[in-house]
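Supplementary notes for students who missed Thursday's class. We covered one full example, reproduced here. Read the sequence, then the structure, then the short commentary at the end.
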Amino acid sequence: MRIGKEVTYNGRRYAVVGFTPLSVTPFRVELFDDETRESFWVEWPPVQPLERLRLAPERSAPSAELND
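Structure (token representation):
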């Protein structure tokens, strides 16, 4: 990543104006919005929301019938 590089974040284009050292966790990037003339810090790479896992319905084991 380089200062001045354009990146897409949340569907919009921003310029990278700063970042933390790679050894720092979480790695953060300062982005500049040319339209609003404001900058802000975000964790990078952006975390995508996890989709809910669709679990298959559990199948019950066949019950054993006891014959006396």
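Commentary. The beta strands are 6-9, 12-19, 28-33, 38-43. Residues 18 and 30 are 5 Å apart (CA to CA). If anything here is unclear, bring it to office hours.
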